Amino acid sequence: MPSVELITTGSELLSGRTVNTHARTLAEKLRPFGLKLVRDTTVTDDLGAITDAVRGALSRVDIVFVSGGLGGTSDDITRDALAQIVGGNLVPHPESLVALEQRYAAMGRPVTDVARRQALILERGEGLLNPAGIAPGMAIPFGEKMIFVLPGPPREFSAVLETGIFPRLGNMGLPVFQALENLLECTGLGETEIAERLEKIGLPTPEIEVGYCAASGQVEVRLIAAPKNAALLEEKTVAVRAVLGAAIYAETRIGLEETVGRLLAAQHKTLAIAESCTGGLIGHRLTSIAGSSAYFLGGVIAYSNDSKVRDLGVPRELIERHGAVSEEVARAMAEGVRARFGTDFGVAVTGIAGPDGGTAAKPVGTVWLAVADAAGTVAKLRCFPTTRDHVKLWSSQQALDLLRRRLQGLSAAPGATPGRPSW
Amino acid sequence: MPSVELITTGSELLSGRTVNTHARTLAEKLRPFGLKLVRDTTVTDDLGAITDAVRGALSRVDIVFVSGGLGGTSDDITRDALAQIVGGNLVPHPESLVALEQRYAAMGRPVTDVARRQALILERGEGLLNPAGIAPGMAIPFGEKMIFVLPGPPREFSAVLETGIFPRLGNMGLPVFQALENLLECTGLGETEIAERLEKIGLPTPEIEVGYCAASGQVEVRLIAAPKNAALLEEKTVAVRAVLGAAIYAETRIGLEETVGRLLAAQHKTLAIAESCTGGLIGHRLTSIAGSSAYFLGGVIAYSNDSKVRDLGVPRELIERHGAVSEEVARAMAEGVRARFGTDFGVAVTGIAGPDGGTAAKPVGTVWLAVADAAGTVAKLRCFPTTRDHVKLWSSQQALDLLRRRLQGLSAAPGATPGRPSW
User: Fold this and answer.
1) Which of A108, A137, B261, B310 registers the highest number of CB atoms within 10 A of its CB?
2) Would you call A13 and B30 a contact, using CB atoms and an 8 Å cutoff?
3) What is the pLDDT of residues A165-177, one digit of tens each?
4) For the domain that residue A59 is a member of, what is the CATH number?
């Protein structure tokens, strides 16, 4: 795979205030072209630092992306830094100048010299019109190498990448190819466990690269191959499906909330939730999906025992006998919210998010999950010995997955032993 | 200011999946020590790339932070790269090895050689116990320079920074100074509006630096000065308090959920919430605070009209006459949830999160917020013409702020005109 480096200039990105997301955007968008980002460098708005970083990248790779510092003010010096490296003058980019003048006229503002400076490009490069802003990008040949220049604001960065650069990549005489990638989104298995299962079926191979990305309660597995190995990729993907089985919840990059939403919508089913330790997180995740009101009717945040009794119909003596964090109460909550909302499914979570409230028998991170439907109720114990935020997040993942498996007619993943950690 | 560079290793950070947030964390935490981050480099897990990047940084600055690649698997090679640069062997860090063995014993897992590798450090450096994980950090003197090594996972990165590195910074003989910083967390005013008000009172000055950090619905203002200008800093902070007034919700770095939680706890008041378009987000935020069950009793996610009527006692004819997104319904929801839960306060949100469901009179982003208590009910209209996620986030901010002002005896911030954007 041809290698690429990215250099971003911007003191604000090194001040502790803003996170630089360009590397993620670029890497993701380069992947289908078979280009691999190997280094990401952020430097301050300093002429020496910018030229040093760009020269370093040009010594290592054939394609260098440079972003930021294309505005009209005194700290926007990327053009000057590049002119020092490749030589030549700065000249106006006619298309961008016209667009700039139209834009300023529409706002009723005069076009100052500072404004006009934004439309300058290197005469040795080609200007790339910026459909989301003013400053154009640039494609600058440098010997056998190529420098692509992009504006810094993320929306403009993406826009120039899509409209100005990608259409040129295929025509550049670069040895690029369209890499094939199969995605498998998994939950209920750890990254190590997945890697061990894949090793047993001989993955990775020299032809099939395997990538992993683990987040709380889910792992993305990517199988990547060159187009000539398409048949092998499909064969290996089938094998991976067999060894991961029900742990695979999707084969596109979507979360469990959207997976569950699509299943509910497709099956014309409705859902209500009863949240204790997650405090609203599951509802928040479900309603982050546009159109969720078609299947999600609402729920109860039962953060007190009174609410569990009054709003969900949990018998008080059940709480007194087994505790609020128990299989019995989780089941009653799921059945209670289903009955109250008149939905096809009721989902419940009750647990100890911590940092206080744990005991030897029920340590912090102990969570009971339940899903009720017309056929009955399934409940599951988990124990996530971690921080409050993570207990909440893992619990929401597991609750959504318990529902996902129910919707797909699969059995629940194994639960935990009381008092022992499980992930 | 002494300069610092950061190098992070991790192919997953260059794959398009994960955003690298270390630079923001580090820069923010270094600021009070008078240390400035000038370059942030991310490289793949490649021995040559790591040594090249570390050597480059050592040629430019006196303090280099290196993060990532400290696990036990074959792609964790940061220790080897550093050993190539500074020389010497890898040796176990006794404290970390003991912690590792205890941890594995608690999980009932055997301590393999791969696991033990995580506790290795350079014999020429000092191990820094990792309170949030297994792999220790390191402080490695290199001639007159210093290399600090940190684990890659963000929680561990921050933990070792706080417990292992900052206590050493003052004792390193480096020309660092403890800059003074006053924080003002604001909501209800935009960054530009705040900057204009500060300019009118002569800020920034050569002695008082002003930093801004805007996120959805809140702006952090930082006034920074050298210790010799402490008196001037206090004087200017008093002036800033006067011009920003009730927009300041805290003077430490806490969110609105914690601010509201502290006010409720201090006043021995209780809260219940009725969420429509926010779908559980406000409950999720409130319950992210440890101990929130002392004042937060729960709520209703009323994502359907039936739920608003059945669970909150909103008269159905109110919804039919004014629509679910209306002042009348918001008020009835706040009063209804307060009555149901028997709390001192009831908070309600009803709005159009989009992308569908907007009309000319009530465009996407139209949100009604209400707070009910024994003295009556306040309601407020806002319109956030943005994406679904942001409408939800802004709505939660505004609802928490409406409650905050009520708890502090302040009047509500001005609302919007129907159909017109407001932030």
Assistant:
1) A137
2) no
3) 988 876 666 555 5
4) 3.40.980.10
**Does residue B420 lie within any of the structural domains?**
no
Q: What is the mean pLDDT of residues A66-83?
A: 90
Phi and psi torsions of B311, nearest 5°: -95, -20
Domain span holding position B374: 256-407
Residue A18 has pLDDT above 70, yes or no: yes
What end-to-end distance do the CA atoms of chain B give, in Å?
37
Nearest to A63 by CA among A8, A145, A144: A145
A273 chain-B contacts, CB cut-off 8 A: 301
| Whole-Å CA distances, B193 to B158, B208, B234, B416 | 33, 19, 22, 17
Tell whether B24 and B154 lie within a shared domain: yes
CB pairs under 8 A between A and B: 251
A127 and A44 within one domain: yes
Please list, in sequence order, all residues whose beta carbon lies within 8 angstroms of the beta carbon of residue A320, skipping any fewer than 6 positions away: none
Domain ends where: B233, B250, B267?
Answer: B250
Amino acid identity, position A230: A
User: Both tokens of residue B408?
Assistant: 């502090």
The sign of the dihedral angle between the CA atoms of A53, A55, A56, A62 is positive
User: β-strands A63-67, A3-9: how paired?
Assistant: parallel
Q: Which two tokens stand for residue A156?
A: 């403009």
Residues of A in contact with B282 (CB under 8 A): 280
Q: Is residue A256 part of a domain?
A: no
Reported as a single tens digit per residue, the pLDDT across A234-271 is 999 999 999 999 999 999 989 999 999 999 999 999 99
Chain B nearest-CA distance from A92, in A, is 31
Instruction: Look at residue A333 in the predicted model and tell me its pLDDT.
Output: 98
Residues A246 and A273 in one domain: no
Work out whether the CA dihedral A88, A89, A94, A96 comes out positive or negative: positive
Q: Residue A376: which CATH number?
A: 3.90.950.20
Split at pLDDT 50, 70, 90, the class of B404 is very high
Residues A89 and A10 in one domain: yes
Mode of pairing for the β-strands spanning B120-122 and B63-67: unpaired
Q: Domain tally for chain B?
A: 3
Indicate whether A285 and A148 sit together in one domain: no
Q: Which helix (H) or strand (E) holds B27?
A: helix B22-30
In angstroms, the separation between the Cα of residue B409 and the nearest Cα of chain A is: 27
A16 with B39: Cβ contact below 8 A: no
pTM assigned to the model: 0.80
Q: How many CA atoms lie within 13 A of B3 on its CB side?
A: 14
Amino acid identity for residue B259 in this structure: T
Interface test with B, best of A224, A303, A367 (most B CBs within 10 A): A303
The amino acid that residue B232 corresponds to is L
Put simply, the answer to whether A389 touches B43 (Cβ < 8 Å) is no
In a domain, A416, yes or no: no
| Nearest CA-CA partner of A130 in A91, A170, A98 | A98
Residues facing A378 on adjacent strands? A371
Question: Is residue A258 domain-resident?
Answer: no
Which H or E run includes B357? none
Kindly list the residues from chain A whose CB atom is less than 8 angstroms away from the CB atom of residue B26: 16
Residues A121, A132: contact at Cβ < 8 Å?
no
Query: Are residues B267 and B376 located together in one domain of the fold?
Result: yes
Considering the domain architecture, whether residues A140 and A42 belong to the same structural domain is answered as: yes
Residues A292-329: pLDDT tens digits? 999 999 999 999 999 999 999 999 999 999 999 999 99
Q: Is B32 in the same domain as B162?
A: yes
A213–B12 C-beta distance less than 8 A: yes
Which ranges constitute the DSSP H helices of B230-315? 230-244, 256-266, 281-286, 305-312
pLDDT of residue B421: 63
Note the pLDDT of residue B378.
96
Put simply, the answer to whether B287 touches A300 (Cβ < 8 Å) is no
Hey, which residues does A185 pair with through a beta bridge? A220, A250
- Domain stops at, among B191, B220, B250: B250
